[in-house]
Amino acid sequence: MGYGVLGPVESRIDGRPLRLPGRNRPTLLATLLLHNRQVVSIERLISTLWDENPPSTARRQTQNMAASLRRDLRAAGEADTLDSLLGGYRINVDAARLDLARFDHTAGEARRHVEAGRDREAVACFESSLAEWRGPALFGLRGHVMRAAALHLDERRLGVVGELLEARLRLGLCHEVIAPARAVIAEHPFREATIGQLMRALQGVGRIVEALRMYAELRVRLVRELGIDPCPALQLVHRRILRQFTAERPA
Predict the structure, then answer these.
(1) Phi/psi class of residue 195: alpha, beta or left (left: φ > 0; alpha: ψ in -120 to 50)?
(2) Is residue 20 part of a domain?
(3) Separation between Cα atoms, residue 99 and residue 148, nearest integer Å
(4) SS3 string of 89-104?
(5) Pick from 34, 62, 94: which residue ends a domain?
(6) What are phi and psi of 85, to 5 degrees?
(7) Are 115 and 202 contained in the same domain?
(8) What long-range pairs does 10-19 form, CB within 8 A, spacing at least 24?
(9) Residue from 91, 98, 124 nearest 110 by CA
(10) Which 3 state secondary structure label does DSSP give 16?
(11) Are residues 124 and 75 in the same domain?
């Protein structure tokens, strides 16, 4: 049986989804999976399920939902997956069966390859790690706790994307950086680390003028909308590309 939070929350038996009726059942499962093999208190579950306005029956409803989820898991052959103990609940899922755990594990393998100077192997592992994502994390779940968790997971995804693009740049695979970098920037137009990677990739394929234009346009937007200049790291990228442009211009 497999479990997923990197997209819509799901549990699958032999490829078939386990039905999670209602609004709160997926949130309950997601919360437990995000804290896999850790006890989550009933109080924490209540605040996640109902934000700041729980009903007077919140504790009983939470207990009933957990009991129903446990019955469904047992019926699916997961007899020891969900425990009730210490004033809360704990789900026990093998790392290989949870997409978030696989994402973290494979990204960790990629970083070990980077440390050892094996960028080709790192690229393959980073790509496998990102392949665990089926869409926006915790898609469709409501409440400020789930929104915050989804944002945190997405930031981790973007971090791995950045590590992948950096490894491709070190290998000279500039053509394989441009499209994914543009995709990130379309969602996060002020993500300067990714903009710097895109500028370096454009430089690497000979599109220096485009890289310089990108920097100029970003600087205008930053000053106009936020009242700040590009960060020092991006300014350094710009200076290096500008030096090359100046050196290559006809006298």
Answers:
(1) alpha
(2) yes
(3) 19
(4) EEECCCHHHEHHHHHH
(5) 94
(6) -165, 155
(7) yes
(8) 11/73, 11/76, 13/76, 13/77, 18/72, 18/73, 18/76, 19/72
(9) 124
(10) strand
(11) no
- The Cα–Cα gap between 10 and 7 comes to 8
Quick check: is 234 in a domain?
A: no
Q: What is the pLDDT of residues 157-175, one digit of tens each?
A: 999 999 999 999 999 999 9
pTM summary value: 0.92
Q: In the listed set 94, 110, 145, which residue is the last one of a domain according to the structure?
A: 94
Structural domain count of the chain: 2
Encoded amino acid at 68, one letter: S
196 assigned to some structural domain: yes
pLDDT tens for each residue of 84-143: 988 899 999 999 999 999 999 999 999 999 999 999 999 999 999 999 999 999 999 999
* 42 occurs within a structural domain: yes
Range of the domain at 12: 2-94
